[in-house]
Recover the amino acids of this structure.
């Protein structure tokens, strides 16, 4: 599908260039989370959006196509404006974009992105780009959910495990099939990989290479699905399991086997715990058993109890039991609440969080929207006849939608507390935003490892 940058907006934007006060020659807007399900959000994904949406220049063909469609669609078209972008700016949007560093944990209400015009005759492009740039809500929301899961898992590992070494692989992305598009799998999957290193979303691993210079951001293991087990027939489920061991089990290897095709408790106790027990031990591999149905808290606890009876456990330095030779991954019904509940139950039963990992699919990449964190892009200042004026909304029916006025930026004071200041007043030392894009040029191209390290640092406080 051919991409026309002019059409990457809402229809009504085509008429807005006629609606501003006479003499308007500048515009400034910001993106922030206004609230929602968390007090802070993890900022990520702008660099990918800039490379995708703003790096392609407009062409004469784009202008012709957009003008034709606008006429049919019932809207005016600013051909002279778009031709100015083409002839004077090489087809690139004349804007300057500032942003906080990707991987920062930012309080709600604090600007994360600002956009300002650089051509007085094309000030309106700032608002025109709202539709495209506000899509940053998606990677921000996924990164935040993934980060919250990491906080929960880390807390239980700190309580019940000898180390945090396993943390990067404790939440696996199962979401590629549950999202609305390949692009969503790319962007959302990358956002998860800011926090973890386990993923079955290949699109995300490829995207981290393309947008953030990361050779391989995520890893996976050989794993069974129901078809590879049920194809053997119910009476030969044990043979299917044995085949997994034959094909993939070797010293140091890890493999995962879905074991609930028929009766997970029979599979765990009779097949894994008796028939295949010695083969598992002799292989030197770690076999990860995957239940995939039932009430997650109860099922995980019972599966681990049965595995403990069959394979034994080792008591770690904190007095919690760790399974020998086997582990469990729960990928059904996983969300922030069930992760907390499962780990809490295991801790009460005396089991370390080392025994279990989680897979999250649509709950991670799809079951969120722009209102999850009430993300918005708002105009906060316009320049009329060379003079900047504050602009904001303040609806009497919803004070929570009051927006900021002025050329606002994210700032920190001497105590490192986040706040809002303006370009006119903020010091260089306090300013927490960097110019990342200007008039078609990406000025800051960060690598994934830097962003990951920045995000991880917030878990230490």
């Amino acid at each position: 599908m051919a991409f026309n940058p002019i059409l990457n907006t809402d229809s009504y934007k085509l008429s807005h260039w006629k609606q501003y006060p006479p003499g308007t020659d500048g515009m400034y807007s910001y993106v922030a989370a206004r609230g929602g399900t968390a007090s802070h959000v993890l900022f990520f994904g702008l660099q990918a959006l800039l490379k995708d949406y703003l790096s392609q220049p407009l062409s004469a063909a784009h202008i012709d196509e957009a003008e034709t469609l606008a006429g049919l669609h019932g809207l005016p078209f600013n051909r002279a404006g778009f031709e100015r972008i083409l002839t004077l700016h090489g087809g690139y949007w004349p804007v300057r974009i500032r942003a906080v560093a990707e991987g920062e944990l930012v309080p709600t209400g604090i600007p994360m992105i600002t956009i300002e015009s650089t051509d007085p005759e094309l000030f309106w492009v700032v608002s025109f780009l709202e539709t495209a740039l506000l899509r940053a809500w998606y990677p921000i929301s996924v990164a935040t959910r993934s980060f919250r899961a990491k906080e929960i898992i880390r807390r239980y590992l700190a309580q019940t495990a000898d180390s945090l070494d396993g943390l990067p692989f404790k939440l696996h992305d199962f979401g590629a099939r549950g999202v609305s598009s390949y692009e969503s799998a790319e962007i959302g999957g990358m956002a998860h990989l800011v926090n973890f290193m386990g993923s079955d979303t290949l699109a995300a691993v490829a995207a981290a290479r393309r947008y953030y210079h990361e050779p391989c951001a995520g890893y996976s293991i050989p794993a069974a699905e129901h078809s590879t087990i049920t194809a053997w027939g119910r009476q030969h489920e044990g043979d299917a399991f044995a085949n997994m061991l034959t094909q993939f089990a070797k010293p140091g290897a890890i493999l995962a086997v879905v074991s609930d095709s028929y009766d997970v408790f029979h599979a765990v106790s009779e097949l894994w715990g008796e028939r295949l027990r010695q083969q598992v031990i002799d292989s030197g591999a770690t076999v990860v058993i995957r239940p995939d149905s039932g009430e997650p808290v109860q099922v995980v606890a019972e599966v681990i109890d049965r595995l403990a009876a069959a394979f034994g456990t080792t008591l770690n330095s904190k007095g919690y039991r760790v399974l020998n030779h086997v582990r469990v991954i729960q990928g059904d019904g996983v969300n922030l609440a069930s992760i907390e509940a499962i780990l809490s139950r295991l801790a009460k039963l005396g089991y370390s969080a080392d025994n279990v990992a989680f897979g999250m699919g649509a709950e991670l990449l799809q079951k969120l929207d722009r209102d999850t964190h009430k993300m918005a892009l708002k105009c906060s200042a316009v320049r009329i006849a060379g003079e900047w004026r504050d602009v904001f909304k303040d609806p009497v029916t919803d004070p929570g939608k009051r927006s900021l006025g002025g050329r606002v930026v994210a700032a920190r004071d001497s105590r490192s507390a986040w706040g809002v200041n303006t370009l006119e007043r903020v010091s260089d030392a306090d300013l927490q935003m960097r110019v990342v894009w200007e008039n078609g040029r990406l000025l800051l191209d960060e690598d994934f490892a830097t962003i990951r390290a920045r995000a991880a640092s917030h878990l230490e406080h």
